[in-house]
Amino acid sequence: MKQTAVTPVVLGLLATRPLSGYDIKTIVDRSTRFFWAASYGQIYPELKRLEQEGLIDGADASNGNRGRRVYELTPAGHETLVAWLTSPTGPAVELRDESLLRLFFADALPREYALGLLESRKRGHEEFLEVLHAIANLPGGKDPDFVDLVLRWGIDFNEWGARWCQEQLERLQSEKTTS
Amino acid sequence: MKQTAVTPVVLGLLATRPLSGYDIKTIVDRSTRFFWAASYGQIYPELKRLEQEGLIDGADASNGNRGRRVYELTPAGHETLVAWLTSPTGPAVELRDESLLRLFFADALPREYALGLLESRKRGHEEFLEVLHAIANLPGGKDPDFVDLVLRWGIDFNEWGARWCQEQLERLQSEKTTS
DNA sequence: GCCACCATGTAATCGGTTACATGATTAA
DNA sequence: TTAATCATGTAACCGATTACATGGTGGC
Question: pTM score, two decimals?
Answer without folding.
Answer: 0.94
